[in-house]
Design a protein that fits this description.
Layout lengths: L1 H8 L10 E6 L6 H14 L4 E7 L4 H8 L8 E5 L13 H13 L5 E5 L16 E7 L12 H5 L2 E5 L11 H11 L5 E3 L8 H13 L3
Parallel strand pairs: 1-4, 1-5, 2-3, 2-4, 5-6, 6-7
Helix pairs in contact: 2-7
This protein binds guanosine-5'-triphosphate and magnesium ion (MG).
Length: 218
Amino acid sequence: MLDKLRARDAVPTGPSPGAARVGIGGPVGCGKTALIEALIPVLQRRGIDFAVVTNDLVTREDAERLRRSGLIDPARVSAVEAGACPHTVIREDPTLNIAAGDDLEARFPGLELILFESGGDNLASTFSLDLVDWWMFVIDVAGGDDIPRKKGPGLLRCDLLVINKIDLAPHVGVELASMLAEASRVRGGQPVLATNARSRVGIEAVADAISAAVLFRV
Ligand SMILES: Nc1nc2c(ncn2[C@@H]2O[C@H](COP(=O)(O)OP(=O)(O)OP(=O)(O)O)[C@@H](O)[C@H]2O)c(=O)[nH]1
Ligand SMILES: [Mg+2]
């Protein structure tokens, strides 16, 4: 009896079973899918066994785009149709996304990582920790350098803030260095990375952050 009680109370050792779940949120068009497209070859090169779940409002547009991209086995991309405000299915009731992740894990034993792309949403969008272990929020310079100052919960609470489309900074009158400094300040020094998902600048650093945070690889 005592042995049984001890076994039940034992602290598990080693990596927890199942894939690490990482959320990617941010406003419409900030480059979430482009970031995933850029991350895919980097994760593959690092030998990480991963899959993707996309969320769209009433279509499967982003999943179809990734499946057609030729970058990833189409079976490793699942689509969730939110059917409502995108944050509903990543925060209030993430059941559909949890089920999509569970299904991928069942189909791909050994899966290490699942990326969940939220549908494009507003600055208040956050992920439930019932769904993800760690999440990033993406904004882009074309949205304006005042976005960090507006202190939306998404960019304040995320584990990593990504400022994308840095190539557009000179075209939209944004001084990138001060936007990055402001973002870092409002986040109290929590990580901020700058990317250009189209030319793949900064993508290795995003992959490093994911690896260190949830795959415990450095
Ligand atoms: N110049 C530039 N364009 C980019 C960059 N990243 C994405 N884009 C473009 O921005 C547009 C939107 O990119 P998506 O990846 O579809 O954005 P998204 O956040 O997934 O959009 P939703 O899923 O609809 O919310 C596309 O035309 C991309 O080619 C970047 O770093 N620089
Ligand atoms: Mg998208």
